[in-house]
Specification:
The chain is an alpha/beta fold. The protein is built from 15 helices and 15 strands. It has helices spanning 3-13, 47-50, 59-69, 83-92, 110-125, 142-147, 177-181, 188-205, 233-244, 295-298, 314-329, 332-352, 354-357, 380-390, 414-432, and strands at residues 26-30, 33-36, 41-44, 103-107, 129-133, 165-168, 212-217, 247-251, 275-278, 289-293, 360-366, 369-374, 393-394, 396-398, 403-406. The strands form three sheets. The protein has a seven-stranded mixed beta sheet, with helices on both faces. β2 (33-36) and β3 (41-44) form a beta hairpin. The longest helix has 21 residues, at 332-352. The structure holds 4'-deoxy-4'-aminopyridoxal-5'-phosphate. 4'-deoxy-4'-aminopyridoxal-5'-phosphate binds next to α5. 4'-deoxy-4'-aminopyridoxal-5'-phosphate (PMP) is lined by residues 49, 109-111, 114, 137-139, 218, 222-223, 251, 253-254, 279. GO terms for molecular function: identical protein binding; pyridoxal phosphate binding; transaminase activity.
Length: 433
């Protein structure tokens, strides 16, 4: 079938509920590029939404998966331990943001892992309610749809969803009116106090600490616009959790595995989560997710109450082991810092230039989890995205605000980053003209 015929076939037979950026069909991926049927090669600054973080078909990950597939594909963790599952834990233990995080449960997708964390939090605390952040994304299952507060589209028409979910604002420095009034200075007092106050009020007015099991938080809002919190915010949330016997759950599905320049984003603020949720980058594209917590909490769950047919698939776990090894051997975090600096510098340059700055509202993010928020009203983000596509480059928009997020591979070369920066710069200039 030709590329056009394949796309037509897909449009006819694939569920419409799945939104799609491009009409073309991907045939293969290698490093920072994907190749479409018909031969069009595109620079991929999406990484399949932050999954193929070590580039498409990373050789060592591919080799590990290929070797495992010949040994054991499916072990079924409810029947017996399987070797790659345990090897993955061994590889992940030294990477955890806190030594108390020592007991693991692996699943397939991010949403399943979020639900596993809800189960653990409810069971361990014997409390029901969950607090989430406005702007957060946790998935598309019934439990996680209830927790997702980034766009109404995710829950529209699917109610009733899981009950017992409350939400509070996440500090959004760029749009903080208090900061704006004080000349744009972001400090704890002017940026965090309101969201912290809202959280304290929620615990007094709507969801008492006696009924609240956990606060779920993405340390950097993902689908909500790549928004890092101001410095003291997460520590303050930790304090509130400790004071009220509430668990702090970090959803690092998008921000984890090096994306922000640390192995896990929460390390930027030195805050200990009670439960950490991982997925996406964990196996560089093979379906795998997991939660980690302290043994004392995990061991409260009754044997048999957790698990699933495909949970912690052996091939995915073997790929995960190779990912963890690559992080060390290939000094990935150093590359994130260097390439992140270059990308950010280019974006800030566009913001400072009066010609392009006229459409830019904010440049933000950490490491290679960077975003460009455009001024409202012009639909600029989608226009810039389209101009990048014309130049054979994939980028994604995010959030209800007019924002583009940049998710390049963490091991992208200096040359490919320079090429990507040039394309983005041209696209912004063309839209601003
Ligand atoms: N949590 C976060 C922070 C996410 O970004 C996502 C996916 N975008 C999920 C959970 C859900 O993961 P999945 O799509 O694998 O179910």
């Amino acid at each position: 079938m030709s590329a056009a015929a394949l796309a037509q076939f897909g449009t006819k037979h694939v569920a419409k509920g799945i939104g799609r950026l491009a009409t073309e069909v991907i045939e293969s991926g290698s490093g920072s590029y994907v190749t479409m049927v018909g031969g069009r090669r595109m620079l991929d600054f999406t990484c399949g939404i932050g999954v193929a973080n070590l580039g498409h078909c990373h050789p060592a990950v591919t080799k590990a998966a290929q070797s495992q597939i010949g040994k054991l594909v499916h072990g079924q963790i409810n029947i017996a331990f399987q070797k790659p599952y345990l090897e993955l834990i061994e590889s992940l233990l030294p990477l955890m943001p806190h030594p108390s995080l020592d007991t693991f449960f692996f699943w397939n997708s991010g949403a399943e892992a979020v639900e596993a964390a809800v189960k653990l939090a409810r069971h361990a605390t014997r409390k029901q309610n969950i607090i989430v952040m406005q702007g957060s994304y946790h998935g598309r299952t019934f439990g996680t749809m209830a927790m997702t507060r980034s766009k109404t589209i995710y829950g529209d028409g699917y109610a009733p969803l899981m009950p017992g979910v409350f939400s509070v604002p996440f500090p959004y420095c760029a749009q903080c009116s208090v900061a704006a009034a004080s000349g744009g200075t972001h400090s704890f007092d002017n940026c965090c106090m309101d969201p912290v106050l809202q959280l304290e009020l929620l615990l007094k007015r709507e969801s008492s600490p006696a009924d609240t099991a956990a606060i779920f938080i993405e340390p950097v809002l993902g689908e909500g616009g790549y928004v890092p919190p101001p410095p003291q915010y997460l520590a303050k949330v930790r304090e509130i959790c400790d004071k009220n016997g509430i668990l702090l759950v970090a959803d690092e599905v998008q921000s984890g595995f090096g994306r922000t320049g640390k192995m896990f984003a929460i390390e930027h603020w030195g805050v200990r989560p009670d439960i950490l949720i991982m997925a996406k980058g964990i196996a560089n594209g093979l379906p795998l997710s997991g939660i980690v917590s302290r043994k004392e909490l995990m061991d409260m769950q009754k044997p048999g109450s957790m698990g699933g047919t495909y949970a912690g698939n052996a091939v995915s776990c073997a790929a995960g082991v190779a990912v963890a090894k690559a992080f060390q051997e290939e000094r990935i975090l150093e590359n994130v810092a260097a390439r992140g600096h270059e990308l950010r510098g280019m974006l800030e340059g566009c913001q400072a230039d009066p010609k392009t700055g006229s459409i830019i509202y904010d440049v933000r993010g950490l490491g290679l989890m960077l975003a460009l928020e455009c001024k409202p009203g012009g639909g600029y983000a989608s226009k810039i995205q389209a101009k990048c596509m014309e130049r054979d480059m994939l980028v994604l928009t995010t959030s209800i605000y007019d924002t583009i997020r940049f998710i390049p591979p963490l091991n992208i070369t200096k040359e490919d980053m320079a090429k990507g920066c040039q394309i983005i710069k041209e696209a912004i200039a063309e839209v601003a003209a």
